[in-house]
Design the sequence.
């Protein structure tokens, strides 16, 4: 039997089915956008781009309904029967290594890890600014990263580790992400 990966519309309706919080849905969509942009930058095409987008969109799918099982509930029960491929499932597993024991290794796994916490953090920065992402400077993100009271729940070491995993200077990663979100 051949499984075809669900299309974007199906993935988005899955988000509506499992997540009530608009903030969490927005976070999922932001990470999907960042993943899609990085896939494009890395010259991925077609189905590969779709996988990167889906991994971003669905990485926190079970967070609201199954917080204790996150993200294993999604990768063992929800997504496989729908036809999501293994590399998407592994990437979702690897975004939470402390929960799953799966560390980010493949490219899609490393980029998802790198985009997740930074997207969340940068969204918190954008919410403090009257113009949101528009005109955001790398230095203002860095300033907030150093302020431990700001978005205190976002682990700074994961943001650093993410940039290392994709072999980028953190400033370069932040600049790329500003570019992605500024135009959304
Ligand atoms: Fe998560
Ligand atoms: Fe997340």
Sequence:
């Amino acid at each position: 039997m051949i499984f075809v990966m669900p299309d974007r519309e199906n993935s988005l309706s899955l988000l509506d089915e499992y997540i009530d919080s608009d903030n969490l849905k927005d976070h999922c969509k932001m990470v999907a956008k960042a993943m899609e942009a990085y896939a494009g930058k890395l010259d991925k095409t077609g189905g590969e781009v779709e996988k990167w987008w889906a991994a971003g969109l669905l990485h926190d799918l079970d967070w609201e309904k199954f917080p204790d099982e996150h993200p294993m509930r999604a990768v063992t029960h929800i997504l496989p029967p729908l036809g999501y491929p293994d590399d998407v499932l592994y990437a979702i597993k690897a975004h939470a290594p402390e929960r799953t024991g799966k560390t980010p290794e493949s490219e899609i796994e490393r980029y998802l890890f790198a985009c997740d916490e930074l997207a969340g953090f940068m969204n918190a920065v954008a919410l403090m600014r009257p113009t949101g992402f528009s005109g955001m400077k790398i230095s203002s993100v860095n300033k907030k990263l150093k302020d431990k009271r700001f978005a205190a729940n976002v682990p700074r070491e994961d943001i650093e580790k993410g940039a290392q995993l994709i072999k980028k200077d953190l400033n370069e990663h932040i600049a790329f992400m500003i570019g992605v979100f500024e135009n959304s």
